[in-house]
Amino acid sequence: MAREFSSVGVVGLGTMGAGIAEVLARSGLDVVAVEVDDTGITRGRGHLEHSTARAVAKGKLTEDDRAALLGRVRCTTSLAELADVDLVIEAVPESLELKADVFTQLDKVIRPDAILASNTSSLSVTEIGVHTSRPGKVVGLHFFNPAPVLNFVEVVRTVVTEPDVVTDVVAFARRLGKEPVVTGDRAGFIANALLFGYLNHAVRMYESRYATREDLDAAMRFGCGYPMGPLALLDLIGLDTAYEILESMYRQSRNRLHAPAPLLKQMITAGLLGRKSGRGFYPYQAPDSPVVVEETAATSSTVDATPRAVRTVGVVGTGTMATGIAEVFAKRGFDVVLRARSEEKAQAALGKVGKSLDRQVKKGRLTAEDAAAALERVRPAVEFAELADVDLVVEAVAEDLEVKRAVFAALDEAVKPGAVLATTTSSLPVIECAAATSRPTEVVGLHFFNPAPVMKLVEVVHTIATAPEVVATAHEVCRSVGKHPVHCGDRAGFIVNALLFPYLNDAVKMLEAHYAEAADIDTAMKVGCGLPMGPFELLDVVGLDVSLAIQRTLYNEFREAGFSPAPLLEHLVTAGRLGRKTGKGFRDYT
């Protein structure tokens, strides 16, 4: 039976400590809050009063409940007043020396059976716990900011934490209305370990001028459904905070992907800390303002070249992506030639477009007249010669380089001079397709996301040979069909896959190392970071074989040790456990 906690101590009344104290008091617990001096107490009380006043204003708390809540929090400057509490949660600044000193002092004053918990977000709980005579009763209890709002905590067990302590703290977190996950004591625990590697990778992309800040952020919002892009999120977290977490993770993991990007240090030195300083990757209206202000110098990815006119579009392929792209163009008034390898496949592809349009009519998203007109604009074809007069060709065949090169060689012979040739590849080099033609300046990547009629993002990929007006044409065409184009160079994974799949791979490595269960990792990223799907849910949807192929492509291009595919991912693919499509992946769907 889980032990009962009736009184809890909180050491440190900064934003996080005050938030934790509020959460505890809301649950009816008596709280003893300790700060170093009266100034700290006054500031901490101010945090509590301000937060609870906001809750009253929003109708989430009555005035009587607020008064009772504040009455349950007793503030003091003496650690000795924690002598009789059942649990102490330390929430002092993220310094190992400071936390170790606090735990040494706490060990001398609290009861022998009381539990000590640290709210550290990235430091080693083991290193903190060894400064006590009871490391078995030391655990990490990582609340997320703002603690009264985010219903997620990480319970961190060390190699010596007693099992019943973990069980009791998990039950306690649930009593507070939080969703706890259990993880081993590793750099960054679950959420930060997976999140900050991804954020750091995005900074390196921006630092190398591979993509603009707007395009990096838009790519992850529109391509993955993330609530915020990585650079905007770093501004919200604070670049100094992010740097400290990455430094701590790197010291523990020695993973080069955790080494903070040099740009972060430069921005911190210049005082560009994010929203709290009024400027980070973006400029803000004022310190702590969420409102981004326009800059005089253009930073967007628009291309300073005149786009070519595009009236007729060719689409090569008959799969879901090809028919989806054909539908996208036809619905926006473009004449489309849909090329297949046989008459039978051509008619089947046309049938798929028709069924998709019918579904949208039934859902009220399209009128029957508009659907019929769109279908009328799609003409099936078998010969490449039938693409002779199109202004743009989009290749959407299998993700096989030799197949794509053969298609581009055929297009080069068949299509008129001046037409733009585009590939929808998600990971193969666009320049390889361009090299199969006599007109590499006319070749560009147009990476639509699946399902093409629904997903708003298109990655416009320029090679070292692509002409500026071809890039401008691709950009304008995307805008004209209601898509959001982002621009990047011709590197494996482009933007989205290059940021997404190393994060998914890291999650597999975390599971493989038995630091946390798949369900807890998924919960951490969904509840703790607000992502639409957990990494293992997403891997099962994408397909483990597809994920492995992309990860291998990234590793082979960048030769980065941290990008090497997780052995567990390779073993599952070898065993035929590919995700939802086979009924088993990381979960069993049978």
Automatic annotation (TrEMBL):
Query: What Gene Ontology molecular-function terms does this entry list?
Result: 3-hydroxybutyryl-CoA dehydrogenase activity; NAD+ binding
Q: Which domain of life is it from?
A: Bacteria
Name its pathway: Lipid metabolism; butanoate metabolism
Per the UniProt entry, the signal peptide is none
Instruction: Name the Gene3D superfamilies for this protein.
Output: N-(1-d-carboxylethyl)-l-norvaline Dehydrogenase, domain 2 (1.10.1040.10), NAD(P)-binding Rossmann-like Domain (3.40.50.720)
- One of this protein's Pfam families, by short name? 3HCDH_N
The Gene Ontology biological process annotation of the record reads: fatty acid beta-oxidation
Keyword annotations from UniProtKB, A to Z: Oxidoreductase
Q: Where is the 3-hydroxyacyl-CoA dehydrogenase NAD binding domain?
A: 8-185, 312-490
Q: Which ranges carry the 3-hydroxyacyl-CoA dehydrogenase C-terminal domain? A: 188-284, 493-589
**InterPro entries in the record, alphabetically?**
3-OHacyl-CoA_DH_NAD-bd, 3HC_DH_C, 6-PGluconate_DH-like_C_sf, 6PGD_dom2, NAD(P)-bd_dom_sf
Return the similarity comment: Belongs to the 3-hydroxyacyl-CoA dehydrogenase family.
The record, for NCBIfam families, names: PRK07819.1
Could you tell me what this protein is called? 3-hydroxybutyryl-CoA dehydrogenase
Q: What is the lineage of its organism?
A: Bacteria, Bacillati, Actinomycetota, Actinomycetes, Pseudonocardiales
